[in-house]
Amino acid sequence: MFFSSARDSINEIKESFSKESLLGSFLFFLVLSSWYVLRPVRNEMAVANVDDLPYLLAAGAVAMLLINPIYSWVVSKTNLRKIVIYCYSFLIVNLLIFLSTWKFLGIGDSVWVGRIFYVWCNVYSFFVVSIFWVVIINIFRNSKTRSFYGVIMAGGSLGAIFGSEISKRFSNSFDEYGLEFFTLSAAILLFFAMLLAMNITRSKMNEKILDKNSVGGGSLDSIKNSIQSEEIRNIAAYVWMWTCLMTIQWITAINIIEEWSSDSQQRISFFATIEQIVSPLTLLIQLFLTNIIIRKVGIKNIMILYGFLFLIAYLLYGFFPSIVAVAIVTVFLRVFEYGFNKPTREIIYSTLKQNDRYKSSVLIDTFVSRFGDLTGSALIKLAGFTTITFNSLPLMALPIAGYLSFLGMRISKENKIRDL
Prior knowledge:
- The chain contains 17 helices and no strands.
- It has 420 residues and is mostly helical.
- It has two domains: 204 residues, Growth Hormone, Chain: A (Up-down Bundle); 201 residues, Up-down Bundle (Growth Hormone, Chain: A), CATH 1.20.1250.
- The chain is globular.
- Keywords: Membrane, Transmembrane, Transmembrane helix.
């Protein structure tokens, strides 16, 4: 019995490694490499504008809300291959505009250029990844190809490491050359990602897996569906709640860390240690366990489990606020998100109607996700005006964590998803 089960698991792992899954993985590698080259620069802009950060985050959310109808209009008029070309070309042109602004116009030191770049980076990070997932969820939709999602996620993890390393190598050039090397590298990586995505989508169109016709519909479909469709509304609420809960968790953790040590070097060392644990652990899980766990545990249970993990995390922060609690919570939540819950949500997206796969999924992963961040930070801010102690704040968010699990149960039931 044991050996039979082990043999089946090994076969499942082997099946998840195929030409298709590796191409999808390499595409995600290029996409996240492009973003992670820019991410440290974005973070530097955040430090430089720390007092204005809430307003910049709000501006990013508004920008995403305004861009989504334009994106939906483009999607309505064309097919997946052209969507990739139009969207990624637009983002590449934007990168080249920033490069030109910094290099030729001599206004790189402008405070407003830095602020605009910060807002644009947030839009870029969400849309470049969302367009990638639109490709994946429209191609890999049957029970066999959904087993590729873990391997595909692993490519993204490697891309994040690679992009961060490029950015680190260019860090010494920032004072003299500004954004030049960062934006150029990101543009080149995204250009290669676009070429690969074009090749993949063309191949799938030839195989009749993808439709060559336009998606159809209107520019406000994503917003309309999120309001009118209970299915989409529940998915949007789920994403909004977990991003809100994650923000509350992170801000609470930051305060615990500050109380633990006032030494910046010690704090940086702690953050680095967390990354050294999370990155390889997540990568191994994505490569070898994601598909097996989703199949064995089930999509429904994974969606429900997130709320319980937040319940445990908040109870730890509320009653045992320590650096050990922060380490345990951070590792478990991040590994669960990127190893299991994110792939599961993408599998759920792959079961939606075509219009929602192309449009609603992007609205949820861009505007709704950013709105969740804003909600979490706003709740923290509001708590500051009350008599609630900081350690008690996570306990106040326990009902939200409980409702997250309830939503997870409803989503899996409404979608009538068959476990892998």
